[in-house]
Write a structure and sequence with these properties.
176 residues; two-stranded antiparallel ribbon; alpha/beta
C-alpha cells in the first residue's frame, strides 16, 4: 500500500501521530488491495472552510473530508486484483488540524486519539461506508470502534485516548 502524507501546516503536531501505520492498519482490516494508494493531507481552518463550502455547501471548517477515487464497490473495485501492478487510487482524506485540536477538549480525547478517530473515519468513507442514514451510521460507527480497539491493542495504548464509546461500541461524536 502506498500512503502519501502531506503536511505543510503544523508539521510538529502531526509528527507525533503514526499516520501511515494507522492508515495501513485500517486498509488492511478493510481488505484493500496491496496496490491501493491513499493521500492524507493536514490543513488549516481557512482551507478546510473553503473545501467544505465548495464540496458540501456548508459554511466553516469541518474536521475531516474524504474524496473517493477508485471505489472498492464500483467497476474499478471489481477489477482491482486483475492488474496488481497498477495503482488502485482509493482517494484522499483531508483533516483540519485546528478543528481536531479543538475537539480534544469537546470529546475528551488526546490529540493522537482525535487524529486517529478522524483518520479512521475518513478512510472508512473511502472504503464505502457512510453515515447519512441511521442504519448506515450504526454500521460505520461500530466499524470505527472495532478498528480503534484493535489499533489501541496493537499499540498498547488505553482506549480512552479516543474518547467515550456508547451503545454497541460506537464513538460519541457529532455530525461530520
Amino acid at each position: 500500500m502506498n500512503i502519501e502524507v502531506n503536511c505543510e501546516y503544523r508539521e510538529d503536531l502531526i509528527a507525533t501521530v503514526p499516520v501511515s501505520d494507522l492508515a495501513t492498519f485500517v486498509l488492511a482490516h478493510e481488505a484493500c488491495p496491496k496496490n491501493a494508494e491513499v493521500s492524507i493531507s493536514f490543513i488549516d481552518d481557512d482551507e478546510m472552510a473553503r473545501l467544505n463550502e465548495e464540496y458540501r455547501g456548508k459554511t466553516g471548517p469541518t474536521d475531516v473530508l474524504s474524496f473517493e477515487c477508485d471505489g472498492l464497490d464500483d467497476e474499478m473495485g471489481e477489477g482491482r486484483n486483475a492488474f496488481p501492478d497498477m495503482p488502485f487510487e482509493l482517494g484522499d482524506v483531508i483533516i483540519a488540524l485546528d478543528v481536531a485540536e479543538r475537539q480534544t477538549a469537546r470529546f475528551g480525547t488526546t490529540f493522537e486519539g482525535e487524529m486517529s478517530v478522524l483518520l479512521v473515519h475518513g478512510l472508512l468513507h473511502l472504503c464505502g461506508y457512510d453515515h447519512i442514514e441511521d442504519d448506515e451510521a450504526e454500521v460505520m460507527e461500530a466499524r470505527e470502534a472495532e478498528i480503534l480497539r484493535g489499533w489501541a491493542q496493537e499499540r498498547g495504548v488505553d482506549l480512552s485516548i479516543f474518547g467515550e464509546f456508547n451503545g454497541p461500541g460506537a464513538l460519541v461524536r457529532g455530525e461530520h
